[in-house]
Design brief:
Length: 185
């Protein structure tokens, strides 16, 4: 595979945008739980505005990764050709698999944390006034954690399919639009 530093930075920026968007979407379930309590409803609106801002920033980074990549590289370094025996689709496959592994491991960690917290409350290891068999505010956290585990497994095991979808979208866009210029302004 022959590519440039500019192209590699664009891939990394898009990966970061995807990570940013997924983290924001997983936070929405916690906002729902916070909004149910009248004492913390204002916090929910603040969190929701932060989530919307994260999603807008992720969309901008996904749509225009070249702007940030140009700022990060010098003009000569951006045009330098980098050769690798690994195909571009295989690099994308590895990156999406690593992102899925990150989400999966983080989700399992949070699920173990929630289970330990529930057991501590159930058996009175926590403060006695907190004894209960069910914490209704933990439902959003558990659902978000399970969604994160599912998303992580989907990315980890289905990365080849995701790369195929991206390739088909790129091919369809290239066939329908004018040729893309490789020149930088």
């Amino acid at each position: 595979m022959r590519t440039t530093l500019y192209s590699l930075l664009c891939i990394a920026i898009r990966l970061g945008a995807l990570f940013f968007a997924v983290e924001a979407l997983l936070s929405t379930l916690s906002v729902y739980e916070i909004s149910r309590n009248p004492d913390t409803a204002l916090n929910a609106y603040v969190m929701l505005s932060i989530i919307v801002g994260q999603l807008v920033l992720a969309a901008i980074l996904w749509t225009y990764p070249g702007v940030l990549a140009r700022l990060a590289t010098r003009k000569a370094a951006a045009q330098e050709i980098i050769e690798s025996p690994i195909d571009a689709a295989d690099i994308q496959y590895v990156v999406f698999s690593l992102l899925g592994l990150y989400f999966f491991v983080g989700g399992v960690y949070m699920l173990v944390h929630e289970i330990a917290r529930h057991l501590a409350r159930q058996y009175g290891i926590d403060h006695p006034e907190n004894w209960s068999y069910f914490d209704p505010y933990a439902i959003g956290d558990v659902i978000a954690t399970l969604a994160q585990i599912g998303l992580g497994l989907g990315l980890l095991l289905g990365a080849r399919g995701l790369v195929g979808i991206l390739d088909r979208a790129r091919d369809a866009r290239a066939a329908s639009g004018p040729p893309i210029s490789q020149e930088t302004p």
